[in-house]
Amino acid sequence: MRQLFRFMYQHGSHLAFAAILMAMSSFGQTYFVSLYGQDLRQAFGLSDGGLGGLYAAGTVMSAVTLTWAGRMIDYTTTRRFTLAVTLLLITACLLVSGAQAAWMLCAGFYLLRLGGQGLMVHTALTATARQFPLDAGKALGAIALGLSLAQALFPLAAVQINYLTGWRIAWLINAVVLIAGVALAVSCLPRAAEKPLRTFRKRGAEKVREASVWKNRNLLLALPAVLASPFITTGFFFHQARLAEEKGWALSWVAGWFIAYAITQAVSLLSFGPLIDRMTPRRLLPWFLLPQGASMLALWLSSSQWVTPFYLIMTGVSSAIASTLATALWVQLFGSAQLAKVRSAVEAGTVLASGASPVIMGVLIDHHVTLRIQALICLVFILAASLVATRVQVASPDDINS
């Protein structure tokens, strides 16, 4: 832990830049957008399924776009790419604020998901992993604290602002906060950190052809485990009101324990970042989902109100590790020279998984498959994905293109 804090002190400027970007990505994250769900349903006359369908459509379109848009970071500086992504996310906030029809809201969702959870996170993680390839676990764990802090503070602030101003003005305020946050982030970015991509390509002999990314055996073996956490976490968070109703819990009781989720994430990020570097991402990959598996087991077995903190704390552990492990794994398997290409492809899958889970789980609920049974299904998938992940091996540069 002492080494981690020393590392954070030595590289504070670059880490602060990326951590702020992670926090600003909240405006396109499901946990934040869902806070406005009731207002949006009323304003546009949408059912729960209708709003979820628009959100899923925007998410799918953003995932498709992300596969090529994420690679643009290779052709410009980190600073310029950050400003372009920020402009995109500001446009999204303004579009949601001024939406007069459902199709405009869907377009707003598309830009929110692309700019927020997609490109803003992609920028922070890619720039950091490239800057610190040998300490990727520590660095990525440190910057992910930005999102954990936002998850602890933004929901309460957003609810209060929404109550005082209404949701349209609230989204204008979100745009202002975004501008201020990114301005602070860019001021922290050292000029020396903006290395052109050719520097990295000279270091790395690996050349991953675009078509070969999705044919790579290691990637395909790792994906089920990598995508499991965002799919399960987003789905259960999106349907937290339904979960509380099924279990007989007060929604305020569930919401109150989200601070434990945020704290757990922060502690886990600080603890597991150095562990990822010591164990290597590949060795940790088959094990990181087990805490979330325990949370699913608890949801299946019991309706006690004390399952709530256990479920959120265990989910927080796996979510924290997942947020840093995947990028560190791609560095280990593909090298930093190809990180943007690989991450943009995988991040598209992550965005798609997190956007699809609310719809899939909602359809299952409509067909009388309770969240208790869905928790059991998720547990089985976690165990299977973890078993498959044991087959991932570090490949030679020649194997990467095969």
Question: How is the topology of this model organized?
Answer:
Blueprint: H1 2-10, H2 12-24, H3 30-33, H4 37-44, H5 48-69, H6 78-98, H7 102-131, H8 136-165, H9 167-188, H10 197-203, H11 210-213, H12 217-238, H13 240-247, H14 251-256, H15 258-279, H16 281-284, H17 290-301, H18 307-334, H19 339-366, H20 371-389, H21 397-400
Verbal overview:
By secondary structure, the protein is an all-alpha fold. The chain has a single domain (11-394), classed as MFS general substrate transporter like domains (Growth Hormone, Chain: A, Up-down Bundle). It contains 21 helices and no strands. It has helices at 2-10, 12-24, 30-33, 37-44, 48-69, 78-98, 102-131, 136-165, 167-188, 197-203, 210-213, 217-238, 240-247, 251-256, 258-279, 281-284, 290-301, 307-334, 339-366, 371-389, 397-400. Helix 8 (136-165) packs antiparallel against helix 15 (258-279). The longest helix is centred in the first third of the chain and has 30 residues, at 102-131. The chain is globular, with a radius of gyration of 20 Å. 49% of the residues are buried.
Which labels suit this protein?
402 residues, mainly alpha, Growth Hormone, Chain: A, 0% strand, globular, MFS_trans_sf, transmembrane helix, transmembrane transporter activity
